[in-house]
Predict the structure.
Amino acid sequence: MKIRYKKRLVFLGLIFTVLFVINQFKAPVVIYLPFNLPDELKGTTIPPFGMFILEKYKGEKNPNACTVLQHEMEHWNQYRQMGLFSFHYHYLKEFVVNGRVNHWMEREANNSCKRKLKASKTLSTVQLKECLVRVPNFVSSIN
């Protein structure tokens, strides 16, 4: 029984070591998935492993709205600011309490994306209201 316990501790130690080393680089890895994500998501960010986006949004370009990649990049920036464990703790805690729609990290990513879009291009008020991230369950999608 003690040997199994030691093997588990060594295994957990290796996992945390790998996560620590990967966390030191903090460079985003974008992986385009050929299959759907659960809950009709278009993309998700799972630090330190990367950003996972559906393949059909690989070349997405929309001058009037944030793309899925831009939105997920905002989450990656949140992770870089907060750190690995703090990011996951606060995201999961808020997700359990408020869900995805009212999540403060989602609102912050949406607002940051809108600010960057507004700074890069002057938009009319109508276009700015339509400047929503095109990810279901975060905000309304634009078609």
Summary: Confidence is low (pLDDT under 50) at residues 131-143. The beta strands are 30-33, 43-46, 50-54. The CA atoms of residues 77 and 109 lie 9 Å apart.
